[in-house]
Write the structure tokens for this entry.
Amino acid sequence: MRKFKTIEWKNTYILMLDQRKLPTEEKYIRCNSPNDVAKAIKQMVIRGAPAIGVAAAMGIALGAKQTRSHKKQSFLNKLGKITDLLANTRPTAVNLFWAIKRMQYVAHKCKDLEISEIISNLEAEAVKIYEEDIEICRKIGKHGSALLADGCNVITHCNAGALATAGYGTALGVIRASSESGKTINVFSTETRPFFQGSRLTAWELLKDKIPVTIITDSTAGHVMAEKNINAIIVGADRIASNGDVANKIGTLSLAILAKHNKIPFYVAAPISTIDFDCKSGKHIPIEQRNIDEVGIIKGKRIAAKADIYNPAFDVTPNKLINAIITEKGILKKPYKHSISSLKKS
């Protein structure tokens, strides 16, 4: 049983595991307001598309509970400012906007109720989004485990595990479900520069679950594919366009190209909430630009020359490089325009 929790609703505050401190320190921080939640998302206390969505929903619920207004319109106006605050935290992860829209829908649906009832409904919806995410990830894991054979070697990039979701994981959920079914899965985790989500977070999670993991530098991936009998690459996603193009942590595109060259299947695991049905292709996905100090400075010490630094947080992998997209409703195959479109109708 996993002893850590990525995020918890505590009625009057939100508790988050500070992922910046891992793997050396398991420290939880208390978010007492929507401002605290927005700051935690921006500063990557919590990260991973599904987890960001859960955090935003909880932030809206918390803000609603703290709004001191007896007039309905004033309450709704303040709620709108809270949703705007959270929507402006990180631009690429579509789960953030999906969760905000769900919360806005509840507020609109309940607009004729008493303020206290609107607040209760918002709180219930935030908790529901949290609980649904865990169940959704378990389903993703179950579907995806069919793609991994006993004893296979898998490369994963960044962190798409319990830390990136409400508590089970997408890409790591597939690995976790395979392990739980009795299979031995050997994982190669890229370090994932510049924030080291792979070496700090993914390896930490897998070690806790006693799943074999080897950390590799990002630039070692091609060599490992050629020399270590890799059977699959599996990653998460921050946004999937309606044509199957996938935005994920920077470096994912390189892995997909290397996988294609080495004839290794490349899989993406993500909930349907990560699909942006209104986004026609990866060209339309906004790419977050992070602070250059993340590349040039580590623990307060400069490690790079004072040259220009380019630090996009994500890249886009075209659908032609993706063998399958694993969702809670099953495994999507090419042509993705058709398989993704069918999800919208179901």
In short: The first strand starts at residue 7 and ends at 9.
